[in-house]
Amino acid sequence: MEISCIVLCGGQSRRMGTNKALIKIDGVAIIERAIQELKKISKNIVVVVDKKEKYAQITKYEGVKIFEDENRDVGPVEGMRIGLKHIDKHSAFICACDMPFIQGDCVKELYGYKTNDIYCVVPRVNGKLHPLHGIYDKKAYGVLSDMVKTDKKRIVYLFDRAKTEIVEVCDCNLELSLTNVNNPEDLESIKKRGVVYG
């Protein structure tokens, strides 16, 4: 599978009150858990951050490159833009840094829907789109570059301008892969499911 992976770490974690990417689950930071899983399917992983010095610990992973947002306070479309700018392949799996249980099988399944004329492949579960767990063509870089210059900076506006495949049924454990940690309650929920964090 010829794909790059992009992990976005530019958020401010207001609801959590601390950097979500560095929270440990089973003794491993969420960002590192994501990298370890993604390295099973790609040798080219790009991590987009607000400040590089906050993520020095991930430089130990071979094949992982770190880049900073060029435009501050723009949101995930900026991280996506920077990530696509620096990938080695024609397509990338893009995810958020607060997903501790990303499943490589889900990435592969979503990638199976990608064709030359489709720019975005995004799962929809119970009517909700999950754009930060999707496949994006490098050609979407131009659209995203235009978007950051306008007032339409939400990812959904990309789907209005670029051909998008919405995937509603997956054979993989998509629910697990989509699990994210937004606040202390989410962490507590993971704990109740038998996963230790800290």
Q: Would you kindly provide a brief summary of this structure?
A:
The chain is an alpha/beta fold. The protein has seven helices and ten strands.
From the structure above, extract its key features.
globular, single chain, 198 residues, Spore Coat Polysaccharide Biosynthesis Protein SpsA, Chain A, 7 helices, eight-stranded mixed beta sheet, 22% strand, alpha/beta, two-stranded antiparallel ribbon
CATH superfamily: Spore Coat Polysaccharide Biosynthesis Protein SpsA, Chain A
Largest sheet: 8 strands, mixed
Catalogue the unreliable spans: none
Indicate the percent of residues in helices: 25-40%
- N-to-C SSE string, H for helix and E for strand: EEEHEEHEHEEEHHEHH
Provide the CATH architecture: Alpha-Beta Complex
| CATH C-level category | Alpha Beta
**Helix count, DSSP H or I runs of 4 or more residues:** 7
Please state the overall shape, judged from the principal axes of the Cα atoms.
Answer: globular
Total tally of structural domains: 1
- Derived structural class: alpha/beta
- The number of distinct β-strands equals 10
Return Rg in Å.
16 Å
Mean pLDDT: 90
CATH topology value: Spore Coat Polysaccharide Biosynthesis Protein SpsA, Chain A
Distance between the termini: 34 Å
Question: What amount of the residues lies in strands?
Answer: 15-25%
